[in-house]
Structures are given as structure tokens and as C-alpha cells.
Amino acid sequence: MEKNRFYVDIHVLQTVPPSCVNRDDTGSPKTAVYGGVTRARVSSQSWKRAVRQMFGEMFDKDDVGVRTKRLIGMVSREIMEQGADTKTENAEKMAEEALKNAGVKFDKNKMADALFFMSKAQASALAALAVQGDKDKDDYKKAIKDNPSADIALFGRMVAADPSLNYDAAAQVAHSISTHAVQTEYDYFTAVDDLSPDDSSGAGHLGTVEYDAATLYRYATVNLAELEKHLGDKMPEAAEGFVKAFICSMPTGKQNTFANRTLPDAVYVTVRNDQPVNMSGAFERPVTSNGDGYVSISKKRFCEYASMLYSTFTEPPAHSFAIGEGMESLAQCGSLSDMIKWLDELIGNTQKGGERS
Q1: Where along the chain do its domains lie?
Q2: What is d(CA 76, CA 19) in angstroms, rounded to the nearest whole number?
């Protein structure tokens, strides 16, 4: 087996009630045409941000990166924390110079010319070089390249101005789509002015909110070998954290309006040593409810499609685990905590030199 072929695939079926999880530029729920019909869609970017936000609750703050244009302030704070006898203004000048030495470009407002993903460890390393008065630009480039946070290693970093600072993402996240056709609906609402006169019968405000409801198929994959290359011994914790966060997170779009925070109906996690396999083809022909809802038929369709792929185009996964009634034909089933323990043991054994098969 090639060393770089070691993947964790996460497949999720999840029902979301009336909601507007992810809007387009007109305020409408995002959609996609797939299999000739309109589907509900939640963009990969939206769910990746939800995962990153959950990382803030799961990991130490030093292990979570910051994506910002305000890099000078981030590094200047580190300079002052390291005990440099300098005023804020001087710290900011030192930070700007350090970042420029590292290859970061700034506009006239001293903002980075694009959002930049940086870990606290990288900011601290740049600050230390600045305090020491280091003049070697290679040292600054090394400081901003080494010690990535878990989310930088997982989601990658692209710096158009200096590709040497790029990180290849170890994780890939698909756009979530509904397993069935959807139709966007409209919620007409009025708001009452609490201080309006008693004889006033009109509303203080009128409006509409667009929404849909769907059973979504969600998919993500993590290249564990790539993740290990970036994080070393921290790889298992990052991989397990990503799996848990991807399963449990929810984008925040219109949550106050719809309270749509649900958990999955079914989860299927596989470890593969050949290639990642997205199972969206199970729903190219949209499922129909026939009055029985979409969840059970979606599970059945998914299991049948996976079995078909394993008997025709690809080998079954090296290891697999499932959560949810109706997934027994594919894998051992258990709880989320059971799955994390299983994954921890599997990845730990592999990292110690066990067989990836």
C-alpha cells in the first residue's frame, strides 16, 4: 500500500426541518439541480466554518487558527506579551516588518491583501524573531510555515502572493444536498409595534423569509497521511476532532428564526487505503416519501448503493463503523462515543506502525 493512501470517509444522513441554513445573495436557501430536479444545498464553506467554530470549543485556543486580514494586531499582541519593552505603536511596526519578511503583503490600510490563516504558534514565532531583531527572511518564512494549527492542516491555506506559504488541505468537504426534490416556500410575517395606539390596526413591519426542509446527504474525507505530515503526533486528536465536529456541527444561518439545530439520522465512517468514495450517486434518482418520510428510504438507498459499489467498482473499506438504525448491513453499529473510541484505537495503532489494511 502506498504511504499516502489512508483516508477516513464520513457519510451523514441528516434531516433539517423548515430552515434557511445557507442563503444565496438574494436571501434564498441555496439549491442545486441534481438528477434533473432541484435539491436543497448547503455549501461546503458553510459547513467547514461550522466545524471550525466547534473546534474552538473542543481544542485549546493555541491549537485553533485565525483567518483574518488583521495580522499586524495579532502579531503585535504576541510581541508585547513576550515582554518586549515597547509601546503599542512600535510593536505594530515590528509586527508589520516581521510579516513582510515572511512574505505577507499589505494594502494601504495595513490589512493583509487577502484573508490569511495563521496559528497562534506561528504568530508567536514571528514575534520572537522580531523581538530578537532577526534579519534573515528565511527564518521568518519558516516561522509562518511551521507549527500549523489543526484547522490549518485540515482545511489548508492559500497565499496567492507567495505560494511557498500554502498548505494543502488534508480534508475535503462536499456540498450537502437533499436526497429528494425540494421546493422553496415563503413565510409571510408581521411584527407589531408595541407602542402603537390602541386604535391602530396596522402592523409595524411586514416581511417574508424563504425556507425549505430536507433530508441531507453530507460527505467529507480526511487524508490521514497528509494530516500526519503536518501535525505529527497531534494527528489522531485532529482527525477525531474533525469527525466529531463534522457530525455534530450545524451552520448558524437563521437559527434564531427556525431553531433547526438537529443531529444526524445515520452516520457511516470508513477507513480506506485506496481512495475516498463519495456516495452521492445513491441519490441521483431522487427518493420519494410515499407518505413515510425520507429518512428510512434514504438509508435503504444508501446501503444498497454502497453494496453495489463494493461488488463492482471498488473494494469494501478496510474498516467501517455506523450509527443509526438501518445501517447494520454495512458495518458494526454503536454510539458516537463508541465510534470515537474505535477511531482513536484504529488511528493510534496505525501511527505506531500497525498495518493500514
Answers
A1: 7-47+174-351, 66-148
A2: 42
The CA distances from residue 337 to 171, 304, 322, 330, 341, in Å, are 22, 26, 12, 19, 6
pTM score of the predicted model = 0.91
Residues in the chain: 357
Decide: residue 324, CB within 10 A, 0-12 exposed, 13-18 middle, 19+ buried.
Answer: middle
Average pLDDT over residues 35-50: 96
As a whole number, mean pLDDT of residues 89-106 equals 92
The rounded distance, in Å, linking the Cα atoms of 119 and 136 is 21
- Render pLDDT for 314-331 as a digit per residue (tens, 0 to 9): 999 999 999 999 999 999
pLDDT of residue 191: 82
Confidence label for 145 from pLDDT (cuts 50, 70 and 90): very high
Task: Assess contact for 173 and 48: CB atoms under 8 A.
Answer: yes
Spatial distance between the Cα atoms of 163 and 313, rounded to a whole number of angstroms:
36
> Tell me: the pLDDT tens digits for 202-255?
777 778 889 999 999 999 999 999 999 999 999 999 999 999 999 999 999 999
Residue whose entry in the numeric block shows the C-alpha cell 486528536: 237
d(CA 29, CA 14): 17
Q: Is residue 172 predicted with pLDDT exceeding 60?
A: yes
